[in-house]
Every structure is written in C-alpha cells, then in structure tokens.
Amino acid sequence: MNKDDDSFLEMLGEFYRSDLKKHESPTKRLIEQKNSTFEHKEIFHKNIRNTNGYKIHYTSSPEKSYVIEPKGGELDYDMAYRNPLKFYQSVMN
C-alpha cells in the first residue's frame, strides 16, 4: 500500500467507526448532508484547480467532503460488461 491508499482507508475508517452518534432525525441529517454537499461542491469548484480529469466528490458527513481522483482516470465500465475478468485484472493491478 502507498500513502494515498493509507489516506483513503483512514478516511473510510472515520466514516465507518462505531462511535458515530445517533441522530435525532434521519431526515434532518439527510437534508444537512444534501445542503453541505452542495456547499462543498461550490467551494471545491472555486478553490481546486481544474485538471479536466475524472474526479469523485464524496461527502462522508455534513462536516466532511473529499475529492478523489483515481489513478489513470475513469474506469472502463463497458469492459466490465464485455470482459469481467479483464476488467477485474486491470483494476486490481
């Protein structure tokens, strides 16, 4: 594993840790998540240089958002349907 992988796994660990507090209203939390995602996307658009590459904007909670740029760009999902084994090998290598 490299440093990027470690950072990604750490981010996922923060999201899936067991000490997340229960919300009084799941609906209110979803609304907060939607609103913060919109706000975060605006901030990312203004402050992150545009590489015209493939990026995924991931909001793990109303307080945290991440931009993930996969190495090598977007995955070829058409290949996943045509040749699943070749797709798997290309993704895992």
Beta content comes to 5-15%
Number of domains: 1
- Please state the overall shape, judged from the principal axes of the Cα atoms: extended
Main β-sheet, spatial strand arrangement:
1-2
User: Unreliable stretches, pLDDT < 50, 5 or more residues?
Assistant: none
**Total strands:** 2
> What's the total helix number?
4
Profile the largest sheet.
2 strands, antiparallel
| Distance, first to last CA | 12 Å
Pairing-aware structural class of the strands and helices?
mainly alpha
**What is the radius of gyration computed over CA atoms, rounded to a whole number of angstroms?**
17 Å
* Average pLDDT reading: 77
Order of helices and strands: HHEEHH
How much helix is in the residues?
40-55%
